[in-house]
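Every protein is a chain of amino acids, and every chain bends into a shape of its own. The protein below has been through that process, and both of its lines are reproduced in full.
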Amino acid sequence: MTELLSNYISGQWLNGQGAGTTLHDPVLGTALVRVDASGLDLAAAFAFARHHGGAALRALTYAQRAAMLGAAAKVLQANRDTYYDISTANSGTVKNDTAVDVDGGIYTLSTYAKLGESLGDAHFMRDGDPARLAKDPLFQSQHVLTPTRGLALFINAFNFPSWGLWEKAAPALLSGVPVIIKPATTTAWLTQRMVKDVVDAGILPAGALSVICGSSAGLMDQLEPFDVVSFTGSADTAAIIRSHPAVTQKSVRVNIEADSVNSALLLPGEAVGSEAIDLLVKEVAREMTVKSGQKCTAIRRVLIPESLYDSVAQALSARLAKTTVGNPRNESVRMGAVVNREQFKAVHDGLAYLKAQTTVLHDGSSHALVDAETSIACCVGPTLLGTGNAAGSDAADRVHDTEVFGPVATLVPYRNHDLDHALQLIRRGQGSLVASVYGSDPEALGKAIPELTDSHGRIHVISPDVAALHTGHGNVMPQSLHGGPGRAGGGEELGGLRALNFYHRRAAIQASTAVLTQLK
């Protein structure tokens, strides 16, 4: 029988009491490890994190907590090769895709370690300058941010078991808030191993970092008024979380990242063969294939002038045709598998749903698998769909409403020289995490950006002058905000030190200037 991964709660490693759920290699189909959380004393675990872990963290300054994050990053870096092996086996990712998750997580953790140094030896943060409350400036109001005395529960998605852990945990721990992580069961192995390595290194106080692998049943029931919960996943599950009594009755603070039908927009005025079009084609193909399209930020709709539809379709199809799909252990393979059979079926079902209103421009089934059995491997070739013309883009409501979480994108032409039409189509996504904009004219790009900021968390602008510098449409950098309005969940993460706001409580202190200067 495969190894049963332990849960780390109440300062100790504990096994669940059930048989557990077996995790599998999505390419080879072999059993890897088991996870189980049944029978755990969740009430005791949450109380231990809240009171022991929280008190120990809050006793430290921001700079001291930042130093712990830096030490944790060094531990993770030292074990990087092991994480790559686990990711290949459990997520079916090629090395470049593993780097996005593993190295991205370590980089984010290191970034917050450096950001925390700037906060110094304080235990709270001032929020703005004092404001006079009376004619005499002696009596003023000073807003401050202090770490919440609760804990942070993270319910994470399957696609980023490393980055999804550290992009949430880094700002929480820096804030002085203990963390309980519930990784997605399917890919929990990598998260559990990273937590184990940091715990074994003795860097953090007991109760500061916990991990529960298995069912999420009962976790929300343990939350108290000063706790926070952050969720990444489907809109349906997000709705359940928002309606839980912990949220509706105890006012537990919630951050949600949900479905997102992200867009790439080519501005009017570009001619066939322009550098802006080449950049668009390159980025769309990359976003479709990195992690087999299993990224919340991946490009799902590609908006171009109607006159360029055929030429862009041909260029994209030609680039996608070069993508080798199969076993990530083979050096010639550029795209591995989706995470499991359930996701494999979901992608095919989603494709069938979109095909009812689109045509296939590049068929993913044309890709022969390398070193993988089609009856076993959860591999899906990259598939490009198209709405045909501007009228088809207006009529294809499924394209604007449906996110197929795999290597799938749709070419959506808009009326020539009609940027307003393109913007109308983009807004039909009802709020997204990111849109990327491509063009050669800085003035036109500058005018288009404000038309997108109200419905997107991030705008990634790619012009020829930054061709070799930009970080990528789908790459979430810790310095920039991650989240989006509307159907994207309405949440915010990262954005540098802005991320700490979620884990702090704001209060106004009304006092004399002499008293305010004594705040430490």
Q: What stands out?
A: The longest strand covers residues 139-147. Residues 95-117 form the longest helix (23 residues).
